[in-house]
Design brief:
Order of helices and strands: EHHHEHEHEHEHHHEHHEHEHH
CATH topology: TIM Barrel
Oligomer: single chain
CATH architecture: Alpha-Beta Barrel
CATH class: Alpha Beta
Shape: globular
Largest sheet: 8 strands, parallel
Number of helices: 14
Distance between the termini: 16 Å
Strand order of the largest sheet: 1-2-3-4-5-6-7-8
CATH superfamily: Metal-dependent hydrolases
Number of domains: 1
């Protein structure tokens, strides 16, 4: 049986969830509470483990379910919830190593110094194998200068950096409107978020300065593989579409390679919700050595096993060699994380 390590799935340790739901005046928490009532396996381990029994030789690398801790209040409150969450994740991995192979830590980037300190604690004291961040921090892009110490430390620690999208209905579809309709903010908006994050990381020179950073982009690398012609030949002409008085908008960090080459430095997961053709595109763009098995469980219509099952089916349907399939399922994440990964 082929080992399968799920590199991108979500959970809420019970103590973290109970403290979080006590924040009655935080809109993001009210929305999460509603979702928890519909998805018990986020908190209830008995439910979760019964679901996972369907998949032999399968374990998860867990992280905290959205929303980001930065949305819970002050920088101090957010940092406290990151600590509580990381303690809970570490306890789950220690108690159930046959279910959970490791965890990616939460940090509050509202205060970068605090985030770096918590990252060090999570790695050195709790055994985190990586860190989960979001595509923006309360609307601020992550190429702002203040985040540089975080990128430097993540590179030094040689961690997996999971990138999760983050917007809600307040991000309107058109300037003339106040809210996004029909959950467009989720279906398409989250994919734009991920792609815009990747572009800002590239053009701000984060990967030029820290080429060892291992960004794992959720949802198969999002829009980038599907629009690689625009990313490649299109951005080879950067500036040709911009008037002279807006030159600063296209003047980034001095890059030594084509923009397309930096986009190929990202990693992608298989969380494409049953779309085999989309996974094929991601594999062709990034290469089988840069695609990690990930399900986005438990957010499927079955509330747990559905996306795991469809991700496995997608990998099996593709024309991969046995070596490539094993690399996607577990070999790539083991190579990236080395001895940090349990089992």
């Amino acid at each position: 049986m082929t080992e399968k390590l799920d590199a991108f799935c979500h959970i809420l340790p019970r103590d973290y969830a109970e403290r979080l739901f006590a924040l009655d005046d935080v809109p993001a928490v009210a929305n999460l509470r509603k979702r928890i009532m519909e998805i018990p396996s986020l908190v209830d381990l008995d439910v979760r483990f019964r679901q996972l029994d369907e998949f032999p030789d399968y374990r998860q690398i867990i992280n905290l379910a959205a929303p980001p801790v930065e949305d819970f209040g002050s920088p101090e409150t957010s940092a406290e919830f990151a600590r509580i969450g990381n303690d809970g994740l570490a306890a789950l991995v220690a108690k159930y190593p046959d279910r959970f192979a490791g965890f990616c830590a939460a940090v509050s980037l509202s205060d970068v110094d605090s985030a770096v300190a918590e990252l060090d604690r999570a790695v050195h004291q709790l055994g985190a194998v990586g860190v989960q961040i979001y595509t923006h921090v309360q609307g601020h892009p992550l190429d702002e200068d203040r985040f540089e110490p975080f990128w430097q430390r993540a590179a030094e620690l040689d961690l997996l950096v999971q990138v999760h999208p983050c917007r809600n209905s307040s991000w309107a579809d058109y300037p003339s409107e106040q809210r996004s309709k029909y959950e467009i903010w989720w279906t398409f908006g989250w994919e734009y978020d991920l792609s815009a994050f990747m572009a800002r990381i590239v053009f701000s020179g984060v990967l030029e300065r820290y080429p060892r950073l291992k960004f794992l982009i959720h949802h198969g690398g999002s829009m980038v593989p599907h629009f690689s012609g625009r990313v490649g030949p299109g951005w080879d002409q950067l500036g040709s579409r911009t008037p002279a008085h807006q030159k600063e908008d296209v003047t980034g960090y001095p890059l030594t390679k084509r923009p397309l080459d930096y986009f190929k430095m990202f990693y992608a997961d298989t969380a494409l919700f049953g779309a085999t053709h989309a996974l094929r595109c991601a594999l062709e763009f990034f290469g089988p050595e840069r695609v990690l098995f990930g399900s986005d469980s438990p957010y499927d219509p079955e509330k747990g096993p559905g996306y795991i099952r469809s991700a496995i089916a997608n990998v099996e349907e593709l024309d991969l060699t046995a070596e490539e399939r094993a690399a996607v399922y577990s070999g790539n994440v083991r190579r990236l994380l080395g001895a940090r990964l349990g089992g």
